Amino acid sequence: MFQGTTRRRMVWTLLAGLLALAVPCLAGSNATLQKATLIPQWEPQAQFAGYYVALAKGFYAAEGVDMTILRGGPSRPPSQLLREGKAQFGTFFLTSALLERAAGLRLVNLAQFVPHSTVLLIAKKADGIEKPTDLNGRRVSVWGPEFRQTIEAFFQRQGVTATTVPQGFTVNIFLRGAVSACSAMRYNEYHAIVNAGLDPDELTVFALADYGLDLPEDGLYALEETTRNDPELCRAVARASIQGWRWAFEHPDAALDIVMSHVAAAHLPTNRMHQQWMLTQLRQAMTAPDEPFGALTRERYAAAAETLRQAGLADTVPDYEVFHVPLR
Where does the signal peptide begin and end (predicted)? Predict the structure, then answer.
């Protein structure tokens, strides 16, 4: 009896000692996580599922990063937050990033997730709009500067002179007839318009990719200074983000649970069905067999640069090797 009690005390003493050693180690491990902040272009939605997944599944933490993901949107553009030092990483359309760089914000592409254009202009056939020039003299709602470059290039190429008005979070201005056409992403606003009761046969849809404007969209960016001063942090964030997107596409239901938790926290007027459509459409856009996942190809970069030059939006762009830094 005495010997058994002694053994138990010895075991508990040993376990307590090991725990005492382990706790500082765990605390030290947490303390070594490097803080970083990511700002997406828009409010929480499946467009950014890979980043939310990487946060929720611990992929950033496993890479040594204590990541915070902010709410984006028109009042919090990534360009502003990176410029002010309130975020180290942001998502941009390639054309937007190039124009920001031309304006002095030295952005660098770390990973390219959407290699093709999903931008649409949508009108109603009942309004007599069937070809691009039918938009002449019409009111067209267009997003802010983070998203509008491809639409401006489309207008120029097609000889369209339209009156543009600001477009916010919804397409209500189009549904109510206040504009003749609206901007849309195939994975977002198009679905919202159809769900609002308009039959696809009633719509004229101008897919900008069909008009020689198949330009890359969402990519992961940092400032050139960040890549120079802390390349390992940039590598870690890029690796974890790529892992997050792969996991999201392999586990769409679980990924949607994570997305909807961010949507609910932001009190946004959307639903799971719409977010499921978005994730499915993004998977199709992001996993084309002819595109290396997460990489910006030289050919697509050159096409975007040339489009901006032809549209008179940017006189010069940096060399591909300077702008795209594959840090994975």
Answer: 1-27
Sign for the pseudo-dihedral over CA of 144, 148, 149, 152: negative
* Cβ(269)–Cβ(85) below 8 Å: no
Phi-psi region of 83 (alpha: psi -120 to 50; beta: other; left: phi over 0): alpha
Mean pLDDT for the chain?
A: 88
Residues 203 and 122: beta-carbon distance below 8 Å: yes
For the residues 133-158, what does the mean pLDDT come to? 90
Helix (H, G, I), strand (E, B) or coil at 73: coil
317, pLDDT greater than 90: no
CA neighbor of 45 nearest in space, from 193, 197, 256 = 256
Tokens describing residue 233:
């942090």
Query: Per-residue pLDDT averaged across 16-45, rounded?
Result: 66
If one counts every other C-beta atom within 10 angstroms of the C-beta of residue 277, the result is: 19
Q: pTM for this one?
A: 0.86
Residue count of the chain, please give it: 328
C-alpha 45, offset from chain centre: 10
pLDDT for 328 equals: 52
So what's the pLDDT on residue 190? Answer: 96
What domains sit in the chain, N to C, each tagged with a CATH number?
A: 33-116+216-323 (3.40.190.10), 119-211 (3.40.190.10)
- The two three-digit tokens of residue 100, written as one number: 């920001």
Q: ∠ CA(113), CA(318), CA(306), 5° rounding?
A: 75
| Order of all β-strands in the sheet with 181-185 | 163-166, 139-142, 181-185, 119-124, 203-207
